[in-house]
Every structure is written in structure tokens, then in C-alpha cells.
Amino acid sequence: MKIDRLLSIVILLMNRRLIQAKELADMFEVSVRTIYRDIESINGAGIPVVTYQGANGGIGLMEGYRLDRNVLTDRELAAIFNALQSVSSYGGTEHTLLMEKISSVIPPSQTAAFRSKTTQLIVDFSPWGLQGPLEEKLTILKEALEDCVAVSFEYISADGVASLRSVEPYTLVLKGQAWYLYGFCAQREDFRIFKLLRMKSLVKEHREYIRQDFPLKELPWSSKWQREGGQARVVLHFTAEGKHLAEDRFDSTELQPDGSGGYTITIDYPEDGWLYGFLLSFGTAVEVLEPEHIRHKIAELAAGIAAKYMESARQT
Locate the HTH deoR-type domain: which residues (predicted)? Predict the structure, then answer.
């Protein structure tokens, strides 16, 4: 990610008088052009970085400038360390490098306390089992984000419709245990959200783009998700035998005991193919109480599944 690379470059410049742009590019596995773009960002943040020409030249902090090493408290450093540790669960040697640098500025007398703070909370974003294809997509998209180049891929929608897309990537979003790409789609001429698991044949294009500014605080992926297909208020009943599934999926404060060992819960979800699949994933442990049309839809889908297996059983 760009933010931890910028901080890492600043720490390197604090400890070394000069460093070559090519060395930084090799260290962080990015282009020299990206390094110079990073230097512009660091300068914009008020830290004067100077490029010296000549055989003994390189990149360094302006002579006489000193960065206060106490600008961050131990608690703040621990919070940054924990965040990097979480992101590093999806790979990236730059995160490990930066974590080592943060650890190196902690005085020996405070090392034990710092280690305690950084092991109180561990967030691992990686899924159970193999993650090779997904990690490969994340790597390609991270590179495209860094270099501001578009990507193209075949996309399979929630309804199973395939289309070719050319997208200018803006943000990788981890939401609901799934990774998404938020970017400007050339085909739709607007910003769209794409689920990484639905992408095929993802490649970087040679087309560069100028990144526009957009306010992250508006959480565009949340509002767009809510508009997909229209909202439906669904009332579910979990049997006593399936109550563990409800407890595994929903917060305990949302679950209402039914007096027979089971639960009822009222939830709002976009009504589409994803919702039907989500409800069917609970099998016989759940029953849709409301609304009536979703009850009929689930019954129809379940009957279709049963008919398929009955036909297969008769053939054998």
C-alpha cells in the first residue's frame, strides 16, 4: 500500500544521507517513476526531500532538516504496527520491512511493553485454505493502483451475465469477508464495484489515467451495495438444531429467542440472487417467515434442487 511505503521511505531518509531512486524502486518493487511520485507526495506533506544530481547524487532530506522521532507515541506506533500486521496477511514484503523499522525505533527498555501491545489484537484477512488466484489478482491490482494504469477483465455479474470491462482502479475494498475493486468503468462511464472472485483473465493495460479525487468518508461502495436490486426486510426463523448457524452468522443482540430453543431475526438485505443463495445455504435450519414472495421464491428454488437430485437418483 502507498501509505506504508511513504512512511518507510521517510524512515530510510532519516537514517541515510542519500539513497538512489533505483535502489528504492528495487526495494519496494515499483518503478522509478512511482518513487519520484512518492517523493512529490512526501514534499507535499511538508517534509523537504531534495534530489541531488551527479555521480554521488541521490535523494535525501534537505540539509539541516530533522524529523521529530517522538512525533508518534508508543500507543500510536503500536496501532500502526497492528494495522500493517493485518494487511500483511495478504502478502507484501514492504509491510514486513516497515514493521521491522517501527520495531527498531522502540527503545530496548520498552520492547516488552510494545510487543505486548502489538499482540493483543490480531486481524488476519486471508481466507482459510488456498488463496493463490485471489492473491494474484490483488497483486496485479495493487501494481495498477500504484502506476495509475487501467485494467481489463471479463466480469461475471451476480445474475451470471458475462461482460468485458476496462476499469481505472481507485480502491481495493475488503467488505463482508470478500475483496472488491472500486473504479471507473469505461463501458458504463461511471464508477462501479467489482467483486474479485467474479473477475476472469485480469491484466494490466498500457493505458494510463489521471486519478480523480473522491471523498472516502462517503463510503460509495456501501451506498451502491444498498441500492442493488432494492431492499427487502426479511424475517427468519432458525430451529433449535440450527441455532449455532444463527449464532455463527449474526450478532447475539439481533437474535430473538423463540421460546423453543430457536431464534427469529429481522434483517434488511438487497433482494437478488445473492440473497436467495444466502438463505438456501442454511438448508433446513432456517425458514423465511416474511415476506411472502420470498418464501415462495425459496420454495420454488428448493423444489428445483430436489427435482434435480431426484432425477439423478432415478437414473442411477
Answer: 2-57
